[in-house]
Amino acid sequence: MVKTFLFILFGIIPSFVLSESLEGGFGTIANDRNEPISFSSDSLFFNEETGTSELKGSVNISQGETSLSSHYAEILFNVNTNELERFYAIGDVVLQSGNDIAMGEEAVYDFIKNELTFLGDVYLSQAGSTVKAEKAVINTETGSASMTGSVKTTLTPPKQEGDYE
Fold it and tell me: Which end of the chain is more exposed for a tag (fewer CB within 10 A), N or C?
């Protein structure tokens, strides 16, 4: 009985909440990776030798249909390929990708692992369903996720054909 409950809690619910379509993923983030990236902030520091960019104050970053805002962000590029490797943001982080929203105090996106981690008062919303937790780790390709720390979930079942309001 306990194993069944844990399977439902950690196996089915995260997939249900974080799968906007049958393809899974988080919003349009996986498809937006080839789009141009726009940055704005109060200040920007770029170190070409280390491939590190620091954005401070009123940070806004957008790529395709994905946008992020925070107080501070640090971006690590591969100096040989100029490809993004890791992204870190802190301070009222809000990520919107397609119709999906994630919020928290901190966020780390590992582009190599396709892993997005939110920490501190995390709130996720997808297709009308929501999750609140202290930590959420999302695979942006598959939509698989794990949440820990005072997890509260509200699920909105998908509308069936013939459902009318």
Answer: C
Q: Which amino acid belongs to residue 118?
A: F
Predicted structure pTM score? 0.76
Residue 119 in contact with residue 106, Cβ under 8 Å?
yes
Question: What type of residue sits at position 14?
Answer: P
- What's the length of the chain? 165
Asked whether residue 59 carries a pLDDT value surpassing 80, the answer given is yes
pLDDT at residue 86 greater than cutoff 70:
yes
Q: What DSSP character marks residue 160?
A: P
Which of 93, 88, 116, 89 lies closest to 103, judged by CA? Answer: 93
**Residues in contact with 71: Cβ distance below 8 Å, sequence separation at least 6, in sequence order:** 56, 57, 58, 59, 90, 91, 92
